Amino acid sequence: MYRLVSGNSRVVKKTLSPLLSANRYASYNLPSIPHLDSLRYSKEDFHGVYTNKAINELWFKRGQQLTDGLNQLLEENGINDPPADLNALITLTFNKPELYGVYSYASLLHNLQFTLESLKPLDESTSSNKIRKCHPNDLLRTPNAYEKINNEPLSPELRNWIDESFGSIEEFKTLFLNSAKAIKGDGLTWLVARAVRRDTDSSPNQEYDELAVMNTYNAGIVDDALRSGQITKLKEEKKYKLAALKKKHEERQKIKEENGEIDSENIEDNLILGTVEEAEALNSFSKRKLLPILAIDASSRNYLIDYGVFGKQQYLDNVWDAIDWNVVAQRLPSKFKATVQL
């Protein structure tokens, strides 16, 4: 439960966003992730994936740096009443170049929290996962195509979605981890539920009907509404440019008419018709919705401490075994089921 405090009024929201506290400028606090908080006090490892040193560096140190940086930028830009929902802050600042720093810090904090909430420590007594520095020879290791898949989702609904979208859990795991392995630099691999908006007589609605895998880089997040907003912004810019062009054209026409000249140029077509690419882009994003349900952070900082420069594959294998499928299933939306109209 998250709380925004301002004077005597209180607005309580249950979101992914951090706590907000009342200062001169309302500020975010580092979010609480219960299983990470317990590791901080017990000084135990995040069994199966991270040592205690790594989790302190990745979450408590870097997470606090991102939180402090975000608060500083909010104060520098005079934003004294930020939204309690971190996603709302991201959306509000995305298309404002002067607030790119706020957007970047908010997105990085959101992504870091989302990925770590997707994992759970393994049972030390039963886990075969080893956190170790990897050797160059590990890069030459041949994958076992017949190796049993560990840590499969138990939710029948989630498993059905995966089978329908990717063919099998084996094919999904291969695509998911290979997509993460292919990231160079900072980036995340996401499992998203994808929907196409179907407008009805009553109101538009989002109908999720398949899963997909996608990558984002640096401070990128999964939100097609942002890309749709970009397209709307570009359309507005084009509208103003064409209006200015039409005004200049009319002025030239008037001068030519006064001089008895005839100009057969017709600018109206340019003002009405757009390109095929514009039409496809508008349709792709204005009627599509992506909902993130799982993410792996493939950035090098996540594995260098424990696994070394050659340990990315081992890190990804260990992360797969630590995915908390109960959390993923809770994020899953209701699946759209098409009906046959007779």
From TrEMBL:
<dbReference type="Pfam" id="PF02777">
    <property type="entry name" value="Sod_Fe_C"/>
</dbReference>
<dbReference type="GO" id="GO:0046872">
    <property type="term" value="F:metal ion binding"/>
</dbReference>
<feature type="domain" description="Manganese/iron superoxide dismutase C-terminal">
    <location>
        <begin position="276"/>
        <end position="331"/>
    </location>
</feature>
<dbReference type="InterPro" id="IPR019832">
    <property type="entry name" value="Mn/Fe_SOD_C"/>
</dbReference>
<feature type="domain" description="Manganese/iron superoxide dismutase C-terminal">
    <location>
        <begin position="157"/>
        <end position="196"/>
    </location>
</feature>
<dbReference type="GO" id="GO:0004784">
    <property type="term" value="F:superoxide dismutase activity"/>
</dbReference>
<protein>
    <submittedName>
        <fullName>Manganese and iron superoxide dismutase</fullName>
    </submittedName>
</protein>
<dbReference type="InterPro" id="IPR036314">
    <property type="entry name" value="SOD_C_sf"/>
</dbReference>
<dbReference type="GO" id="GO:0005737">
    <property type="term" value="C:cytoplasm"/>
</dbReference>
<comment type="function">
    <text>Component of the mitochondrial ribosome (mitoribosome), a dedicated translation machinery responsible for the synthesis of mitochondrial genome-encoded proteins, including at least some of the essential transmembrane subunits of the mitochondrial respiratory chain. The mitoribosomes are attached to the mitochondrial inner membrane and translation products are cotranslationally integrated into the membrane.</text>
</comment>
